[in-house]
Amino acid sequence: MLRVLMFLVPLALSVYAFIDCISTKDTDIRHMPKPLWAILVLLFPMVGSLSWLIAGKKRTPASGVRGGWVAPDDNPEFLKSLRKDRDEDPKGD
To answer: Which pLDDT belongs to residue 18?
Structure first.
């Protein structure tokens, strides 16, 4: 079982890194051109894959709103619209 894991884990890492490399936009790649990164990942599976994951791609922070979905209570525009609706309510409810 351990022998299988010692083969499958590096293989999965290499496949993931290669697919991530070729599907990344050219503007998000750092330090080298995309074809060179892809060759590095293919020729040196462990070193190339780890290098790609660490230094090859511009990473964005996990936190932040940046165009993603935001819960209504965290969305400033939604909260402003609630205040506006409340201020315009003629009944005062």
So the answer is: 95
